[in-house]
Amino acid sequence: MTRLLVVEDDPDLALALRVLLSRDGYEVSLAADGREALRLLFAERPALMVLDLVLPGLDGWEVLDRTRDMSDLPVLVLSGLGEPEDRVRALRSGADDYLVKPFAQAELLARIEALLRRAGPGGWAGETVEQDLRLVPERRSALWLGTEIRLSDIEYRLLQLLVRNRGRVVTTEQLLDQVWDDAAAVGRDRVKFGVLRLRRKLRYAGGPLARDPIESVRGLGYRYETTDRRSPAG
User: Fold this and answer.
1) Which residue of 68, 92, 198, 206 has the lowest C-beta tally within 10 Å?
2) Residue that terminates a domain, selected from 60, 94, 118
Protein backbone atom coordinates (compact mmCIF):
# COMPACT_ATOMS: atom_id res chain seq x y z
CA MET A 1 0.00 0.00 0.00
CA THR A 2 1.34 3.46 -0.91
CA ARG A 3 2.17 5.55 2.15
CA LEU A 4 1.54 9.29 2.21
CA LEU A 5 2.71 11.78 4.82
CA VAL A 6 0.23 14.58 5.57
CA VAL A 7 1.70 17.56 7.44
CA GLU A 8 -1.19 19.63 8.81
CA ASP A 9 -1.57 21.34 12.19
CA ASP A 10 -5.37 21.70 12.05
CA PRO A 11 -6.54 18.46 13.72
CA ASP A 12 -9.98 18.49 12.08
CA LEU A 13 -8.56 18.95 8.60
CA ALA A 14 -5.82 16.39 9.27
CA LEU A 15 -8.42 13.81 10.27
CA ALA A 16 -10.55 14.61 7.23
CA LEU A 17 -7.53 14.18 4.94
CA ARG A 18 -6.67 10.87 6.54
CA VAL A 19 -10.23 9.58 6.01
CA LEU A 20 -10.35 10.85 2.42
CA LEU A 21 -6.98 9.40 1.43
CA SER A 22 -7.49 6.13 3.28
CA ARG A 23 -10.77 5.59 1.45
CA ASP A 24 -8.85 6.07 -1.80
CA GLY A 25 -6.49 3.24 -0.88
CA TYR A 26 -3.54 5.06 0.70
CA GLU A 27 -1.82 4.43 4.01
CA VAL A 28 -1.60 7.81 5.76
CA SER A 29 0.75 9.16 8.43
CA LEU A 30 0.00 12.49 10.09
CA ALA A 31 2.38 15.14 11.43
CA ALA A 32 1.12 18.24 13.25
CA ASP A 33 4.38 20.21 13.12
CA GLY A 34 7.58 20.46 11.13
CA ARG A 35 9.82 18.49 13.47
CA GLU A 36 7.40 15.56 13.56
CA ALA A 37 7.20 15.72 9.76
CA LEU A 38 10.97 15.36 9.42
CA ARG A 39 11.04 12.53 11.96
CA LEU A 40 8.40 10.59 10.03
CA LEU A 41 10.17 11.39 6.77
CA PHE A 42 13.29 9.63 8.07
CA ALA A 43 11.43 6.78 9.74
CA GLU A 44 8.81 5.89 7.11
CA ARG A 45 10.16 7.09 3.76
CA PRO A 46 6.71 7.94 2.31
CA ALA A 47 5.97 7.98 -1.42
CA LEU A 48 4.53 11.53 -1.31
CA MET A 49 4.10 14.37 1.16
CA VAL A 50 1.12 16.72 1.46
CA LEU A 51 2.54 19.80 3.19
CA ASP A 52 0.95 22.81 4.87
CA LEU A 53 3.25 25.85 4.98
CA VAL A 54 1.99 27.53 8.17
CA LEU A 55 3.07 25.21 10.97
CA PRO A 56 4.04 25.71 14.62
CA GLY A 57 7.76 25.75 15.34
CA LEU A 58 9.56 24.59 12.21
CA ASP A 59 7.45 25.96 9.38
CA GLY A 60 6.59 24.35 6.08
CA TRP A 61 9.19 26.34 4.14
CA GLU A 62 11.96 24.85 6.27
CA VAL A 63 10.43 21.37 6.02
CA LEU A 64 10.40 21.71 2.23
CA ASP A 65 14.02 22.84 2.16
CA ARG A 66 15.22 20.00 4.40
CA THR A 67 13.13 17.47 2.48
CA ARG A 68 14.86 18.45 -0.74
CA ASP A 69 18.21 17.83 0.98
CA MET A 70 17.12 14.25 1.67
CA SER A 71 14.79 13.18 -1.09
CA ASP A 72 13.25 13.79 -4.47
CA LEU A 73 9.87 12.44 -3.36
CA PRO A 74 6.85 14.37 -4.67
CA VAL A 75 5.67 17.23 -2.45
CA LEU A 76 2.18 18.69 -2.85
CA VAL A 77 1.79 21.95 -0.94
CA LEU A 78 -1.73 22.33 0.48
CA SER A 79 -1.92 25.81 1.95
CA GLY A 80 -4.18 28.72 2.76
CA LEU A 81 -1.50 31.02 1.32
CA GLY A 82 -2.91 31.80 -2.10
CA GLU A 83 -0.83 34.71 -3.36
CA PRO A 84 1.13 34.20 -6.60
CA GLU A 85 4.41 34.93 -4.83
CA ASP A 86 3.73 32.09 -2.36
CA ARG A 87 3.13 29.65 -5.20
CA VAL A 88 6.25 30.79 -7.04
CA ARG A 89 8.41 30.56 -3.91
CA ALA A 90 7.16 27.06 -3.12
CA LEU A 91 7.68 25.76 -6.64
CA ARG A 92 11.15 27.28 -6.82
CA SER A 93 11.97 25.72 -3.46
CA GLY A 94 11.21 22.26 -4.81
CA ALA A 95 7.46 21.68 -4.41
CA ASP A 96 5.98 19.64 -7.25
CA ASP A 97 2.46 21.06 -7.05
CA TYR A 98 0.48 23.67 -5.11
CA LEU A 99 -3.18 23.58 -4.12
CA VAL A 100 -4.91 26.39 -2.20
CA LYS A 101 -7.38 25.80 0.64
CA PRO A 102 -10.31 25.38 0.48
CA PHE A 103 -10.00 22.71 -2.18
CA ALA A 104 -12.15 20.19 -4.00
CA GLN A 105 -11.57 16.64 -2.77
CA ALA A 106 -11.62 15.22 -6.30
CA GLU A 107 -8.95 17.68 -7.40
CA LEU A 108 -6.69 16.80 -4.48
CA LEU A 109 -6.96 13.09 -5.27
CA ALA A 110 -6.34 13.70 -8.96
CA ARG A 111 -3.22 15.76 -8.28
CA ILE A 112 -1.83 13.13 -5.91
CA GLU A 113 -2.44 10.40 -8.49
CA ALA A 114 -0.73 12.47 -11.18
CA LEU A 115 2.34 13.14 -9.03
CA LEU A 116 2.70 9.48 -8.06
CA ARG A 117 2.25 8.41 -11.68
CA ARG A 118 5.06 10.70 -12.84
CA ALA A 119 7.41 9.85 -9.99
CA GLY A 120 9.82 6.97 -10.09
CA PRO A 121 11.09 5.11 -7.02
CA GLY A 122 11.91 7.44 -4.16
CA GLY A 123 15.28 9.08 -4.70
CA TRP A 124 16.62 9.45 -1.21
CA ALA A 125 19.89 11.33 -0.96
CA GLY A 126 20.81 9.29 2.10
CA GLU A 127 21.19 6.27 -0.13
CA THR A 128 24.11 5.63 -2.46
CA VAL A 129 23.94 8.16 -5.26
CA GLU A 130 26.79 6.61 -7.22
CA GLN A 131 29.46 3.99 -6.74
CA ASP A 132 31.83 6.20 -4.75
CA LEU A 133 29.52 8.62 -2.93
CA ARG A 134 26.76 8.49 -0.35
CA LEU A 135 25.20 11.58 1.23
CA VAL A 136 24.22 11.41 4.91
CA PRO A 137 21.78 14.32 5.46
CA GLU A 138 21.04 13.61 9.11
CA ARG A 139 24.74 14.20 9.94
CA ARG A 140 25.41 16.76 7.19
CA SER A 141 28.23 14.54 5.93
CA ALA A 142 29.23 12.40 2.96
CA LEU A 143 30.82 8.98 2.53
CA TRP A 144 33.44 9.34 -0.21
CA LEU A 145 35.29 6.16 -1.21
CA GLY A 146 34.26 4.64 2.12
CA THR A 147 35.50 7.51 4.30
CA GLU A 148 33.09 9.83 6.07
CA ILE A 149 33.67 13.56 5.54
CA ARG A 150 32.14 16.09 7.92
CA LEU A 151 30.89 19.09 5.95
CA SER A 152 29.76 22.57 6.84
CA ASP A 153 26.18 23.45 5.95
CA ILE A 154 27.37 25.37 2.87
CA GLU A 155 29.67 22.54 1.76
CA TYR A 156 26.89 20.00 2.15
CA ARG A 157 24.40 22.10 0.17
CA LEU A 158 27.03 22.71 -2.51
CA LEU A 159 27.81 19.00 -2.90
CA GLN A 160 24.14 18.05 -2.77
CA LEU A 161 23.24 20.50 -5.55
CA LEU A 162 26.13 19.36 -7.76
CA VAL A 163 25.23 15.70 -7.21
CA ARG A 164 21.54 16.32 -7.91
CA ASN A 165 22.61 17.76 -11.28
CA ARG A 166 25.41 15.26 -11.88
CA GLY A 167 26.62 15.21 -15.45
CA ARG A 168 25.28 18.74 -16.05
CA VAL A 169 26.94 22.11 -15.56
CA VAL A 170 25.66 24.16 -12.61
CA THR A 171 26.48 27.80 -13.21
CA THR A 172 28.13 30.05 -10.66
CA GLU A 173 24.95 32.15 -10.58
CA GLN A 174 22.82 29.07 -9.81
CA LEU A 175 25.17 28.04 -7.01
CA LEU A 176 25.08 31.53 -5.47
CA ASP A 177 21.29 31.60 -5.68
CA GLN A 178 20.59 28.10 -4.36
CA VAL A 179 23.49 27.46 -1.95
CA TRP A 180 24.26 30.94 -0.65
CA ASP A 181 20.74 32.40 -1.20
CA ASP A 182 22.38 35.17 -3.19
CA ALA A 183 19.97 35.78 -6.07
CA ALA A 184 21.85 38.94 -7.06
CA ALA A 185 24.97 36.84 -7.73
CA VAL A 186 27.17 39.12 -5.62
CA GLY A 187 30.42 37.70 -4.27
CA ARG A 188 31.27 35.12 -6.93
CA ASP A 189 34.55 34.33 -5.17
CA ARG A 190 32.51 32.58 -2.47
CA VAL A 191 31.73 29.82 -4.97
CA LYS A 192 35.36 29.48 -6.02
CA PHE A 193 36.62 29.12 -2.46
CA GLY A 194 33.67 26.96 -1.39
CA VAL A 195 34.43 24.49 -4.18
CA LEU A 196 38.14 24.61 -3.27
CA ARG A 197 37.42 23.66 0.35
CA LEU A 198 35.06 20.87 -0.72
CA ARG A 199 37.64 19.49 -3.18
CA ARG A 200 40.31 19.48 -0.48
CA LYS A 201 38.10 17.43 1.83
CA LEU A 202 37.30 14.93 -0.93
CA ARG A 203 40.97 14.64 -1.87
CA TYR A 204 42.05 14.16 1.75
CA ALA A 205 39.46 11.41 2.24
CA GLY A 206 40.15 9.67 -1.08
CA GLY A 207 43.91 9.89 -1.17
CA PRO A 208 46.26 11.33 -3.82
CA LEU A 209 45.26 8.88 -6.55
CA ALA A 210 41.49 9.30 -6.23
CA ARG A 211 39.68 11.12 -8.99
CA ASP A 212 38.41 14.65 -8.47
CA PRO A 213 34.66 14.36 -9.18
CA ILE A 214 34.11 18.14 -9.41
CA GLU A 215 35.02 19.52 -12.81
CA SER A 216 35.53 23.24 -13.42
CA VAL A 217 33.90 24.46 -16.62
CA ARG A 218 35.67 27.66 -17.62
CA GLY A 219 33.43 30.70 -17.73
CA LEU A 220 30.32 28.76 -16.66
CA GLY A 221 30.51 26.91 -13.36
CA TYR A 222 31.04 23.36 -12.13
CA ARG A 223 29.91 19.83 -12.92
CA TYR A 224 29.88 16.67 -10.80
CA GLU A 225 31.38 13.98 -13.03
CA THR A 226 30.19 10.42 -12.41
CA THR A 227 32.71 8.47 -14.52
CA ASP A 228 35.09 6.03 -12.86
CA ARG A 229 38.08 7.61 -14.58
CA ARG A 230 40.85 8.24 -12.08
CA SER A 231 43.51 10.86 -12.46
CA PRO A 232 46.51 11.85 -10.37
CA ALA A 233 46.04 14.73 -8.01
CA GLY A 234 47.19 18.00 -9.43
Assistant:
1) 92
2) 118
